[in-house]
């Protein structure tokens, strides 16, 4: 029995795979043990250092520390990410529709804009918003996130439309729908459901990119971690790093679980099935991007 891409591994191949998996796991465990020993020798596991979150020094309370991290830091992160995500989704939809236009006078300039902003670093766009456009720091962060992610979202949506069977658009035209009616009532709803895992994955990237606002002085979670470390002393840097990483992982894991839930839910509804999250990002978008001249 074989798949499209490769033959099913035989007994010897499975044994080799198992052996190398065990060797790799032991190597990773060895690295983790060495890291633990290094941190232990520096006293990073001492309970006194972890009391920074329950009984901090310098006249501060645990409520002050957690409020700084969760309300001020995480709140600023979620606020910037939420506003940027809403605008990027709307703008990405507009760009995707224009990119699919039958008119070259519309399609080519939009394609150029999308490819241009996809190739720019997010932090450079943030600097441009603050320095060149004179935006406040918060809106400079939002500007950078919106411009970059709207271009990515436009490609994701376009790839979803391109991946639909051609019979979908033909059936729409057969019942008398026009080009734009077919797009908004038949093609786009299916494309959105099909690419939901990719869209949610991109929102996870957007959320993590808010940490780049730290570079231009935006007081999001990463900046709050630095300020706390400077206030209480560098001896607590590891403790704040661990807690900050745990907060980021928890939020991003929640969004990733949401992507899995939407994928399973959409499997029962989307015509032609739903692309897996990994396939949608690695396959559909890449494949769709190659068909730059496709029009609805």
TrEMBL record:
It is a multi-pass membrane protein. GO terms for molecular function: transmembrane transporter activity. Signal peptide: none annotated. PROSITE patterns: ABC_TM1. GO terms for cellular component: ATP-binding cassette (ABC) transporter complex. It is found in: Cell membrane. GO terms for biological process: amino acid transport. Keywords: Cell membrane, Membrane, Transmembrane, Transmembrane helix, Transport. InterPro entries: AA_ABC_transptr_permease_3TM, ArtM/GltK/GlnP/TcyL/YhdX-like, MetI-like, MetI-like_sf. The keyword Transmembrane applies. The chain crosses the membrane at residues 18-36, 76-98, 110-131, 236-255. The keyword Lipid metabolism does not apply. Residues 74-259 form the ABC transmembrane type-1 domain. Belongs to the binding-protein-dependent transport system permease family. This is Amino acid ABC transporter permease.
């Amino acid at each position: 029995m074989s798949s499209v891409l490769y033959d099913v591994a035989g007994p010897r191949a499975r044994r080799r795979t198992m052996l190398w998996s065990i060797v790799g796991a032991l190597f990773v465990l060895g690295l983790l043990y060495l890291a633990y020993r290094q941190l232990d020798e520096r006293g990073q596991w001492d309970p006194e250092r972890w009391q920074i979150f329950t009984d901090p020094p310098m006249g501060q309370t645990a409520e002050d520390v957690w409020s700084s991290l969760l309300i001020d830091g995480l709140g600023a992160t979620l606020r910037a990410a939420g506003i940027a995500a809403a605008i990027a989704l709307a703008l990405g939809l507009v760009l995707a529709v224009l990119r699919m236009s039958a008119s070259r006078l519309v399609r080519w300039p939009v394609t150029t804009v999308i490819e241009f902003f996809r190739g720019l670093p997010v932090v450079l766009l943030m600097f441009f918003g603050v320095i060149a456009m004179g935006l406040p720091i918060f809106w400079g962060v939002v500007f950078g996130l919106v411009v970059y992610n709207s271009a990515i979202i436009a490609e994701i949506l376009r790839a979803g439309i391109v991946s639909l069977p051609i019979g979908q658009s033909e059936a729409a035209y057969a019942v008398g729908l026009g080009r734009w009616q077919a797009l908004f009532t038949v093609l786009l709803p299916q494309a959105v459901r099909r690419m939901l895992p990719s869209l949610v994955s991109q929102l996870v990237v957007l959320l993590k990119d808010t940490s780049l606002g730290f570079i231009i002085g935006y007081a999001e979670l990463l900046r709050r971690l630095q300020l706390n470390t400077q206030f209480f002393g560098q001896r607590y840097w590891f403790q704040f790093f661990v807690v900050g990483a745990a907060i980021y992982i928890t939020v991003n894991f929640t969004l990733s679980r949401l992507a899995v839930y939407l994928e399973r839910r959409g499997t029962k509804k989307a015509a032609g099935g739903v692309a897996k999250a990994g396939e949608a990002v690695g396959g559909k978008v890449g494949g769709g991007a190659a068909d730059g001249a496709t029009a609805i």
